[in-house]
Amino acid sequence: MEIYEAFVLGVGTMNSVKRYNLVIKTLSPVHIGDGSEVGKKEFVLDRNLAIIPDMRKLYDYCKQRRLGDRFVNFMQDNRPLFFFFRENGIQKNDYQRFISYTAGWEGNERPAAFKSFIKDSYGCPYVPGSSVKGALRTALLAAVLSKEQGPRFKEIYSKSDNRQVARTIEETAFGSINKSIFRGLRVSDSQPLDKSGLILCRKIDAGVDGRENALNIYRECIKPGTIISCRVDIDENIIGLSAEDIEKAVHSFSKIYLDCFLSRYRKFIPESQRNKTMLLGGGTGFVSKTFIYPLFGYEEGLKKTSVFLSRKFPKHHHTEDVRLGASPHTLKLTRYRETPVEMGLCSASFNEIKS
Fold this sequence. Notes:
single chain; 355 residues; 32% helix
């Protein structure tokens, strides 16, 4: 069944919920933040590792060495934690007394701070179900808007207030919050992930001219090659779609993203890396979480995106995007093992759980 027809008709083929294990493999670093930042007094760098101490254990360790007052006074000045370690003879073999975890790190520029990855109450990173469901929702909306019913949504786009247009289009496609077809799609948080799989990644803005602008902004990420597992329940009588339909929508959005945006940055990202993939988490860029290109295609979408971003960020020169052939005119990257990679690139597959 065509995805749009399923949405409109609201049909299903089963009278019960189907359960799946959604297996996501990270192909590049993935960041899902908890809204906090680890500051320069909360970690030290040791070659290719960031050492993150349990601050309570570190304070207890300092008290045992009669350094408690020094530590309290030090925390009130402006120097990184490394200086306290050096001045008070705290060595590597002491770290196990207070360490919480480590994160891999590479590069020449030492991070002053980094944005923290979300963790559970035991300190283990995990992927919230809401993040996964958001990525699936974006792909399904793209599938609807890219079909022949596009003119109706284009009219909504042209007549709606910019602040309300996304909500209006989504409610038209999926129904209002209380009646949304997404009541039939439930995604659990992932299983806890190993803390040893965390790395620090620097934010890089890449231009269509091939230039890179490395910013002194770092994010704590899950490294490539990590397997993430989420439980997904699909009620086909409500959502009107199968797991196969959802996978097709993800792959379709990946192709739209490649054709309309990523292909303008071939120097950085070979097309072979972008076959049937999804983008997950933060730092993945405007196009990965919006519907303008699926709705309008490349040429018109380029103009619409340029106008939208020019109004929202008047100082960022988005009026030049059409001339440059890409809007936004920067691609969000990081480096992993000295190679430029997209943020949040993943593969995903549904495996049905048989009762």
